[in-house]
Every structure is written in C-alpha cells, then in structure tokens.
Amino acid sequence: MDLGVGAWSFCGVWGLELGASSTVGFPEFRIPLARFEASFSDPGGQDVRAPIWNLKPRRYPYLDRPFPVHKAPVKKMKSAITPKSIAISFVVVLVLYIAAFNGIEGCRHRKGAWDVAFLTDASGNPSIVVYQLALNISSVELVFSGERIAQTNLSERVLFDRPLKPVPFGKVIYEDLTVLPGVVTFDLFGHEVELLPRVLFVNKKEIPWKSDTTVELSETNKPAVPPKPPGKAKTGVL
Q1: Whole-angstrom Cα distance, residue 34 to residue 12?
Q2: What's the rounded Cα separation, in Å, for the pair 166 and 175?
Q3: Residue 221: CB partners within 8 Å, gap ≥ 6?
Q4: How many other C-beta atoms are found inside a 10 Å radius of the C-beta of residue 175?
Q5: Cis ω on the peptide bond leading into residue 181 (within 30° of 0)?
Q6: 229: Cβ contacts below 8 Å, ≥ 6 apart
C-alpha cells in the first residue's frame, strides 16, 4: 500500500471540510464532528480509510462544581471597655492628678508665707513685725505712733498662707497668694502697708527690705485718702 500516491484527508471534531479531490492526487481534508481519521487512495483507485484516533469529549469534574470560597471565621469583637479597664483608668488618672496637684502645691509653697506678728504694749500701742525666712527678711517692725487699742500686751502671729486669715487689728484689703509669699496689703489705722517680695510699700512709698529695722508711722505721714482695695492696677510690682 503506497501512501505517497494517495490523497490525504483529515476528519475532526469541528465538521469542517477543506482540500482537493483525491483522484488527482492532492490532499483532502475532511473534519467530521465525532472522530479524527485519515483516508487515502490506493493505485487501483479504491478509497481506504484508516482511523488515527477517536476524540472523546473530556470532562473536568472540578470545573463543573462551584469554586470553593474559604471564608475566615468571624470572631466576635470583645468590647475594649470593661469594668477592669475602667477601674485601672480611674486609678491612673487619680494618681496623675494627685502627683500634679502635689507638684503645683509644692511650687506654690516653696518659699513660704508672710509671717506677721501683731503686738501691743502695756498701754495698747500697736505695732507689727514682719518675717520671711526664704527672703532673708527678719524683724522688720512698723510702729504706729499715736494709735491705741483696747487690748494690751497682745502678741499674735498670723501666717498668710491662705486667703481671708483674720487679723487682731486693722484689716487686709488685698492679697494675692497664688505663689507664696505673694502680696498682702493692709489698712492699719489709715496707713497702707503692702508686703511684696521685692520691696515694702508704706503709703505708696517704696522702702527696701532690711532686717532688724523699725519704721515709725504717725498721724503726720498718714495719707489724706484712706486706703482702698486695689483694682487691676497694682500698687507695686513683684
């Protein structure tokens, strides 16, 4: 059987038919739907068909079913606010508040307050003595000549570490104790006495601080206008 003189035809799954007639020796291509085979003609003119292979539809089961989607398990979110976390937060805030408060109070009271002794002698003549150890101020006495009060032999010390401290005589018309020793202003028998860390003001006059000194005040140097509580304008400067 001579395949060289015959005409070839190929038949396949698509049912297409291409080529020329086998009688003149040219290849012929035929593609039926179900099989794939070769045919040729022998020298006697008889067609001989020999199957090459049969094509069977191949199925892919894993493509017929839905593609599996793996979903991650959904975890329930736990609430971040729990009684334990609330208690811990409260303790932390309380500790920070106490630490900040103590720190601020320590800065405020670092230098200490004005310490003023209110005195009278056996005749009732009044005087005050000012102390402030952090500023090296000691035994600065102010004597009010010509003044007299009913209480004799008085000796009372007042520490101006908080507002509205009562005084034995005279009155406090202004105080700023934000940072000690601060500022304290008195009206003492018509005399304005103002204690500042930098300087002592008496009747609007500046007197430098000097320990163990005495300042005498009398009717003659009393201001014509009685002392009044200062407004926003300060009498002295820190």
Answers
A1: 7
A2: 12
A3: 191, 203
A4: 19
A5: yes
A6: 173, 174, 185
Sequential pLDDT tens for the chain (238 residues): 444 443 344 333 333 444 444 444 445 445 454 444 444 445 555 555 545 544 455 555 555 566 566 666 666 666 678 888 889 999 999 999 999 988 888 888 899 999 999 999 999 999 999 999 999 999 999 999 999 999 999 999 999 999 999 999 999 999 999 999 999 999 999 999 999 999 999 999 999 999 999 999 998 889 988 898 876 444 433 3
End-to-end CA distance of the chain: 130
3-state secondary structure of 137: strand
pTM value is: 0.60
Sketch the domain layout of the chain as residue ranges.
9-57, 114-221
Helices (H), 170-234: none
User: Which residue's structure tokens are 């003119």?
Assistant: 45
**Residue 200 C-alpha from the chain's centroid:** 43
